[in-house]
Structure formats: structure tokens, C-alpha cells
Amino acid sequence: MPRTAKKKKPVVSSAKASKYDAHHAVINNTYGDFADLRHQLSESKEDVAERAKLLQIFSSCNDSQRSWLLLEDYFNKLNLARKDFSQDDWWGGMAKSTGDVRLEDLALVFMKSGRSVPNELMPYANFTRFAEVEQAEKDHQLFKGLEEWMFPPTPVHLDAPRAALRVVGRLVEDTELPGLHKLGVEIHVIRPRTGDRVKTLEDMADLTMRAAHEQELFPSADWSFIRWSSGVRHNYNTEAELISLDGAELLKWLVQWGKSGR
Questions:
Q1: CA distance 157 to 8
Q2: Cβ(168)–Cβ(188) under 8 Å?
Q3: Nearest CA to 113 among 24, 40, 178, 45?
């Protein structure tokens, strides 16, 4: 069967691979339908036989590590390397197969990468399967494009928040009025490097006075709380890590943040 031109997929090619591709491209373009014959005549029978013997050992090898080394030897004899082929994860499936099926898979790797199938591997080249695989990939891309058009994925933000704020409340006994309690509030700032740290209202004010990049580290809702707490800090002990709230002060905090889920 004449070697048909195949659509190439982007791969990282070595200089030797470029020479391999150029050699076969010249023969295909020059001899057309007789390219197969010219490919056979362009190589010595000894080289083809040596590679064919290596392929037979590779096809019957059950040890995946040794199989990989045999395949590397085969690529080297063709002046090729693993990186010269499609970036798809084709080795996992090939390692599980043996015999002619493994060699057919190897021929498919050549075709999917847009490279001419070597002479000794041509008997195992299944062009019908190659056409089916190519069509299945085109259908998959089409359906994926339609799905993303109908249900656009959530945009990925490269600069995701790298710090977070957590406000913790707990009951605190009122020392002046036994039997009654106040609401104690702790403000926690969480950063990847320093972890969870309890902060004071003075620390909140310090955050707002730092460089502008500090604001970019927090989600907008957290930054709103930081600015608000900084503005009301003078009504409380700014050095205390636990803020006691009752009466009108508690009502003020509840009105401001009661519905926010904070």
C-alpha cells in the first residue's frame, strides 16, 4: 500500500529525527506511488534484518523495563528517540500487549507522529485502525469544543488569593456580672508560609498601611473586614488578641457581619 501523507502532531524533535523525516519526505515526494519500493531499496537487507530481529525480541518480551530498553535500542538504530514521537501516553498500553498487537501499536505510534513507518514494521501497519483513531480524536475535540461552548468552564485565576482571614467567636464569662457572658472574637490570618496566627486590631491597621500588594493576597470579602476592623480599632484594646463584645458593641458587629457567614 502506498505511504500516504499523515497529519503531524506537535512533538519535540531532535536533529537526528529531522534528518530521518527529511530523508523519507524526499523519497515520498520524488517517487510517489513507488516510494515504498524505493524505501526498501534505500536500506541494506542486513540493517532491516537486524531491526526486524530486535522487533521480534521486543514483541515477545514480558518485562516492561527490558522491553523499554529494547525499544530504545530500536529507536537508536533509526536515529530516533522517545521524545521524537507523540506526547500521548502510548507506552502504558503497549507494555501490556505482546506479539503482533504490540508491533501494530508501535506502527500506530509512528503514524500518529507523522513519521514514515520503517520497512520491517510495515507489515504490522494497520491503516484502517489509524484512520479510525484519527477520526475518533477529531470527534472528541469537536464534542469537547461544543461542551465548552455550551457550558463554559470556570476561569482559572493565575493570581489566586494566597492569604485568608478567619474570625472565631466563643463565649467569655463576664467578670463584672457573674452568670453573664460576652462574645469573645479572635481574628486569625492564615498564610501558606507562616500558618494560622491570631492577630490584634492593631495588626489589622498595620495590614492596611502596608504596600498595595498586601491587599492582593486576600479575597475581597476578607479585605473588607480588615479595613472595617481597622477603622473601629480605637474603640477597643488594640493590643488584645481577644476582643470582648456585649451590648451595643455586640449589636454593631452583628449588624455589620451577621449576614455574611463570617
A1: 32
A2: yes
A3: 24
| 113 close to 8: Cβ distance less than 8 angstroms | yes
- Is there a contact between 125 and 100 (Cβ–Cβ < 8 Å)? no
Average pLDDT over residues 101-129: 91
> Distance between CA 231 and CA 244 in Å, rounded?
17
Q: What angle do CA 254, 255, 256 make, to 5 degrees?
A: 90
Q: In terms of Cα–Cα distance, which of 108, 120, 118 is closest to 6?
A: 108
Q: Single out the residue of 9, 160, 172, 20 nearest to residue 81, CA to CA.
A: 20
CA distance 132 to 260: 55
The domain ranges of the chain are 15-134, 164-257
C-alpha cell at 122: 510495515
pLDDT of residue 121 exceeding 90, the answer is yes
Residues 107-134, mean pLDDT to the nearest whole number: 91
Tell me if residue 58 falls in helix, strand or coil.
helix
Average pLDDT over residues 244-252: 86
Mean pLDDT to the nearest integer, 92-121? 91
**Residues 207-218 pLDDT 10s:** 888 766 778 888
- Report yes or no: 84 and 17 within 8 Å, Cβ to Cβ: yes
